[in-house]
Amino acid sequence: MLAEAALLDACARTSDVFRRHPNVYSNVLSEPQARHGMVDPYFIWWKKRQVSIADSAKSTPNGLVAYFDIRQFYDSVPHTLTSSAWANHCETGQLAHKWRTLGDKLIADYQQIKPGNTGLVAGPMFAHVLGNLILREVDNFLSATFPGSYFRYVDDIALVLNTRSIERATEVIRHALPLGLRLHEDKTLGLDTADWIRITQSFPNETGTYFWAKLIGGIKYFLAARSNQAPVLRRILADNGFRIPIRDYSTSVGEIPYLQRLSARFRERWLSNHTFPQTPNDLLELAKIARHELQIRFERFTEEPPQQGMLRKFQLQKIRYTATRLLYLGDPVRLPKIEAAIESTIEMSDISAIYKSLRTGDVSELLSYSSSVAQSAAQLLATDPKPLRCNVTSWRPELEAAWAVLNMNGIQFTADASSPPETPLVNFSTQSRNASTSDPYFEEVFALARGTTIKHETLLRTAFDYEEEHVLDAIRSLRSSS
């Protein structure tokens, strides 16, 4: 993890060839001075892409917005294409030899996970950056062929066409893709630009984003001003059936860059006579309003007749937006009804599994999904201290990874719950929870780490048990170069 972060930082600092292509909106390397991580939050760039498509659609009033999907992109990438894309960009960007060989090592590790001659693992962030490099020539060609009208997000391509015919665009993309990659033509969708603009512009009001943003913004402002009342706020929200991870927000508001941004937004809203919550009960009222508004919208969206094509895509986006926020806000009594409304929709199966785990207290089915789904569920499950059940008879690697994520998030299991066999990952998750914070060496590590970019306490807890002096040397080096 530390090596990957260092490599991405080196790429971002070394050359623009590793950075964002102007028409790509996913897995964007952060600016070197950023404090939020090595890659920008995905939702920022997803929203920017929607705005860019809308601007292009407005200039093409009688056109068509067409969506194309690369079939099983990560699983289909030839190993030779991954290695050559990395080597070519290292050469063009004049990346230092040590960083290039580190990238070679990580790629070799990925290819051990994907046997045969194809496949790129979809978990590590460096792998996602490699995905952008692999498609860089495609981006260059299609952005030149469709100037101002080409927009890519991972393996999802959008074009704004001035003609109703998708066939020519399909043929152009098909020939632009490197050997081994193909379009999933069953997923090619189109929508008139006028309809696309109307639907996307109405999305915030229809889904109630205002109520969610007002609640979460209010919590952050309140905790920044009255952090000592976090336990009271947590109890009041929990007593009323809300599952909002106050602990996570308490951590984020303690960071200086966050407080600086918060102060700027506070001044802006103060000048506009915005009222800030002063007590936990003020936030409780905001939470109740957000719950009511999002519940109404969810019920309306799920009762609408099913759509087809691009209209279905937008319909599912609205359902997913409200359903995910109701995971945090929904009345516990109504959770089974929400789950029932989405459980037959295949695109919502991961959200449905989280609802089921909340309802039943059993994570057996949840573990079948990715570790990122387990991470999302862990924030919710951790708000209830009751131990969870787990009944797995055959442990596959993806189940072990999901279990380890829950374990590292402090999720407690019942005494009779099944647990995975000992593997390095499982041991890592268990050891990081059991590490003693009273160990003198541990205290020295954290004393040194304060003031650096290292924030991953779980990683440090485990790391100091292995290469003690190496950890200390690395932190000292960070301190001296900060």
User: What does the radius of gyration come to?
Assistant: 24 Å
Q: Level of helix content?
A: 55-70%
Low-confidence stretches: 450-467
User: In whole angstroms, how far apart are the ends?
Assistant: 20 Å
| Anisotropy-based shape | globular
Tally of helical segments: 23
The assigned structural class equals mainly alpha
Largest sheet: 4 strands, antiparallel
Mean pLDDT reading: 86
* Side-by-side strand order of the widest sheet: 2-3-1-4
Proportion of beta-strand residues: under 5%
- Reading the helices and strands in chain order gives HHEHHHHHEEHEHHHHHHHHHHHHHHH
Number of strands: 4
How would you explain this protein's 3D organization?
This protein has 23 helices and four strands. With 482 residues, it is mostly helical. Helix 19 (397-408) packs parallel to helix 20 and helix 21 (440-449) packs parallel to helix 23. Helices cover 60% and strands 4% of the residues. The relative contact order is 0.07.
Which key phrases capture this entry?
60% helix; 23 helices; 4% strand; four-stranded antiparallel β-sheet; 482 residues; mainly alpha
Can you summarize this structure?
The chain is built from 23 helices and four strands. It has helices spanning 2-14, 42-58, 73-76, 79-93, 97-113, 125-134, 136-145, 167-176, 193-207, 209-225, 230-239, 246-252, 256-271, 280-303, 309-329, 335-342, 349-360, 371-381, 397-408, 424-434, 440-449, 457-463, 468-481; strands spanning 64-69, 150-153, 156-161, 189-192. The longest helix is centred in the middle third of the chain and has 24 residues, at 280-303.
